[in-house]
């Protein structure tokens, strides 16, 4: 019989009260979630200030998501290689440097590369904290409960970050959001140095054997696809040499990566991971869902900005409804899916019904004479449905053997965090432009 010891965080110094330790970790997670390379809510201000295209800023934002998605594969290696104190300080310093570069650079390649690495360190810091308090959240290691917490925290921080960014840009300058995050990261570093100690629960696990080249090739493949989706309309798709070269490069890198993975000993993402039904099914379903939810990236902005003539404050105020939908969806998932163990199929049907309601409401009832309040219901349904889908799809990957589990999370992150939104917007945007030309 193993003794059930009470939860503790030995990486913290003895004078820190046990009951406060998890909450300190959660505050650090929130800081990491607020941090990043650029803040897309301030894209209009950045375009004017840095003399860049909107597509340039969007590309940098998606690059950050690619970095985050790729990092899942090596998370446990980093967890067991570095002590918590070391990991948190490294991540804080790296993200501070990334924010400083993003404030001053006007080089698009440098901005994209910087945001890519900002996403990596943001995810590293987030994982370090969340993995530390997992047993506090769910002593039984119930991933359905854990992922309810994850998406509640992550999605709420995304919405609050957008709100703070727009309010900061409106009352001051967009750069002040970066300085705010730099200040918060500085405080986090100070807290880490005071409250944490260099504690290890096991011997160092070296970083030898990681397929860094494979990770780079996956990253380049995703960035090429995102480049095609983001810049497609700007360059008139395959009428331009830029899109043709990006497509050729993407195909070559992808084929080389698959070929390498077929014979090297430990590929960054094993081909075996793709063979599990739950992996490729959730990958394909996420593509469908992102196409269905593409109006949230395209039509909503056009409708509110160009037709209703809302300013940035009125537009971003709807984030409060998204936040409400996220909280409601997370709580609903916790009570039904995590606690009562409702089936995956039941939860998926509920989510798709909400998505259908959003689409019907948005496509068939929206009119230029409607008040702002009319948008509340479809936006709530969209965020409510998405958080349910995200939680059940991520939890479903627990059926994958542990050896491939984190690779499967990276694969799902490819489409849920980065590729899906760009692909959905590109498909819907091209369809609308084609339809308008026909009319």
Major beta-sheet overview? none
Order of helices and strands: HHHHHHHHHHHHHHHHHHH
Radius of gyration: 22 Å
Q: How many structural domains?
A: 3
What is the fold named in CATH at topology level of the largest domain? Answer: Growth Hormone, Chain: A
- Cα distance, first to last residue? 74 Å
Corresponding CATH superfamily of the largest domain: MFS general substrate transporter like domains
- Give the low-confidence spans: none
CATH class of the largest domain: Mainly Alpha
Task: Give the second-level CATH assignment, the architecture of the largest domain.
Answer: Up-down Bundle
Mean pLDDT: 85
Quickly count the helices: 19
Please give the number of β-strands: 0
Please give the share of residues in helix. Answer: over 70%
Strand content: under 5%
């Amino acid at each position: 019989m193993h003794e059930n010891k009470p939860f503790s965080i030995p990486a913290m110094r003895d004078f820190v009260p046990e009951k406060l330790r998890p909450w300190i970790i959660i505050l650090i997670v929130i800081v990491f979630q607020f941090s990043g390379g650029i803040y897309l809510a301030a894209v209009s201000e950045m375009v004017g200030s840095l003399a860049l295209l909107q597509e340039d800023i969007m590309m940098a934002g998606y690059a950050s998501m690619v970095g985050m998605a790729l990092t899942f594969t090596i998370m446990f290696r980093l967890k067991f290689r570095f002590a918590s104190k070391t990991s948190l300080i490294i991540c804080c310093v790296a993200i501070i440097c990334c924010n400083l570069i993003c404030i001053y650079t006007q080089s698009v390649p440098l901005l994209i590369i910087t945001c890519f690495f900002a996403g990596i360190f943001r995810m590293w810091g987030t994982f370090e904290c969340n993995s530390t308090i997992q047993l506090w959240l769910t002593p039984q290691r119930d991933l359905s409960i854990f992922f309810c917490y994850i998406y509640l925290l992550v999605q709420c921080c995304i919405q609050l970050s957008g709100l703070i960014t727009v309010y900061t840009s409106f009352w001051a300058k967009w750069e002040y959001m970066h300085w705010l995050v730099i200040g918060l990261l500085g405080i986090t570093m100070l807290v880490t140095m005071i409250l944490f100690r260099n504690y290890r629960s096991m011997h160092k696990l070296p970083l030898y054997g990681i397929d860094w080249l494979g990770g780079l090739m996956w990253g380049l493949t995703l960035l090429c696809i995102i480049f095609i989706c983001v810049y497609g309309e700007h360059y008139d798709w395959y009428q331009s040499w830029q899109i043709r070269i990006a497509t050729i490069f993407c195909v070559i890198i992808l084929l080389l990566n698959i070929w390498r993975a077929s014979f090297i000993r430990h590929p960054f993402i094993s081909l075996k991971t793709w063979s599990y039904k739950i992996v490729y099914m959730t990958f394909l379903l996420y593509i469908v869902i992102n196409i269905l939810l593409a109006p949230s990236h395209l039509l909503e902005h056009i409708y509110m900005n160009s037709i209703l003539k809302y300013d940035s404050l009125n537009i971003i105020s709807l984030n409060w409804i998204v936040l409400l939908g996220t909280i409601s969806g997370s709580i609903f998932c916790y009570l039904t899916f995590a606690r009562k163990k409702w089936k995956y199929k039941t939860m998926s049907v509920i989510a798709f019904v909400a998505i259908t309601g959003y689409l019907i409401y948005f496509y068939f009832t929206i009119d230029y004479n409607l008040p702002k309040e009319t948008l509340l219901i479809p936006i709530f349904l969209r965020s409510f449905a998405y958080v349910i889908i995200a939680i059940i799809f991520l939890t479903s990957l627990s059926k994958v053997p542990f050896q491939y589990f984190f690779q499967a999370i990276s694969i799902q992150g490819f489409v849920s965090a980065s590729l899906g939104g760009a692909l959905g917007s590109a498909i819907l945007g091209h369809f609308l432009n084609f339809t308008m030309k026909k009319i």
